[in-house]
Amino acid sequence: MFTSTAQKVTRLTRPFLEPANTLHRQYEALRAYFLEGAPSFEVATRFGYTPGSFRVLCHAFRRDPTWAFFLPARQGPRPTPARDRVRAAIVTLRKRHLSIYDISRVLAAEGTPRSPVAVSLILKAEGFARLPRRPDEDRPTHPRQTVAAVADVRALDLTPRQFRTQFGGLFLFVPWLAQIPLPTILQTAGFPGTRMVPAEAAVRALLALKLVGSRRHSHVMAEVLDEGLALFAGVNAIPKRSFLTEYSGRIRPQSYPRLMQAWFDAVGRLGLARGVSFDLDFHTIPFHGEDALVQKHYVSKRSRRQKGVLAFLAQDAGTRVFCYANGQVRKETQTDEVLQFVAFWKQRTGHDPEELIFDSRLTSYANLSRLNQGGIQFMTLRRRSRQLVAGIYHAPASAWRRIELDGVSRQYKTPRVLDQRIRLPHYAGEIRQLAILDLGHEEPTLLLTNQLRRSPAALIGRYAQRMVIENQIAEGINFFHMDALSSAVAMKVNCDLQLTLMASSLYRLLGAKIGNGYAEAKADHLFRDLVDATATVTITAAEIIVTFQKRAHNPLLLAAGLDRTTSAVPWLGGKRLRLNFGE
What we know:
Elements (H helix, E strand, L loop, with lengths): L13 H4 L4 H13 L5 H7 L4 H13 L17 H15 L4 H10 L6 H10 L35 E5 L8 H4 L4 H8 L9 H13 L15 H7 L7 H10 L4 H15 L7 E10 L9 E4 L4 E13 L5 E8 L7 H13 L5 E3 L7 H9 L3 E5 L4 H8 L7 E2 L13 E7 L8 E7 L7 E5 L6 H24 L13 H22 L8 H9 L3 E5 L3 E6 L5 H6 L6 E3 L7 E5 L3
Parallel strand pairs: 2-6, 6-7, 13-15
Antiparallel strand pairs: 1-12, 2-4, 3-4, 4-5, 7-11, 8-9, 9-10, 10-11, 12-13, 14-15
């Protein structure tokens, strides 16, 4: 502030002698220094500057000694010439009737890239409306994606020719599919179809995507030009993802149980072995939408409860094939699913399953009693409570005995077991409870079973296999990408489940045919060694010859006699399929 007493400060002189804003203070200070010749230190002290800041102010004025130096800074966005030039270029290109994608390509070629979204926002701000759809001849010429033909069985080309396919391994399943009356099964089950894509062609197309389990449904758009994939389905081109979504939504829910029953009978006639022991489990498929009818269920891979579709799965412990599934499970009825599976198995085979292995949360004590009364053996875990665990720890040491489990790879081979007969609420009669310690858990493991004479070592060993099977169920679900509900194709859960059962059966048939340890191999193992293979397809007047590339596992396919298979394929004009592994 100006503090000199040489002049009298009045109401009219105060605005000149006592600057009230920054620009006025800068002006008076610079005027006193440059015009009146006052020393720098004295001017800085008089106007409230430090000596260093006043020297900086003088330096800035020397670089721009004009009146613009004392003008206030402009508020608001400053003009950017480069951005304005791009904006003008976008407007000019739109006046030439170029689309936002065409404009984006032109700008990228000129070195000023802008995304189509950014271009659309600028055009909207400038008041331009969207362009009407133009025919291809009116569009600028530039490289475009190749558009595949529309799927139509009537346009299927079976004239003699030759081509390469990435999906040669799919034709390993054709000999079994050719023996299954799929059109009759689907017609009886009530599956929809059209003249262009009948029900059997649609299901084969969806099944093909299941059998190549390493690929998600959304990836079908990258394979629409593969003639081998279309030939397997029996159409001229594989249907697009929009068709896959729409078709799964057209299938009525009551059609799935009919298809599951008919497919079960069909693969049984093909020689698919049926075991006597089954592993049962629930699987929650996460749901990422807004639907008041979708309930919350426990998702094991995320260790939390969230919205999802609860599916019930039964896997044959001997053949590791999914033999039953239900994707319409509700909380109110989920404890009865085990009884539904028993009824299904008895209806299809004429007898009850011999043994069921499942987790503690799968069913109720009342249903355990019904299984026992029906003569069905079961094993399950019991939920631990503080009172129950305290009672087990208070058991005398003489009641415990140490056993030895089979298996050289086990870390805990000699657990302690408390073998008791107990009673449970809503369970008629006594049930056997095994409390197991020294098995790698802090708390005792409680095993419930109605197998009263089987040795504790055999029971524990069998349930330990079930824990491995639970992981295999999860791995099978991952391989068949049943959790891919977030992909571009929104498949119905029931449709996805049924396709998983069908693909699992075909993989088991292939594994049993090959032998040499592949009968028990996982689906991803079979896919990696046998199915994931490119091939050359040669169509002749009477045959379809699939020649596979040379691979290390071809001798196994030859030993299984697949090269001697000459099946007539009904959906390929009755031409015979011949597999050649000589290349």
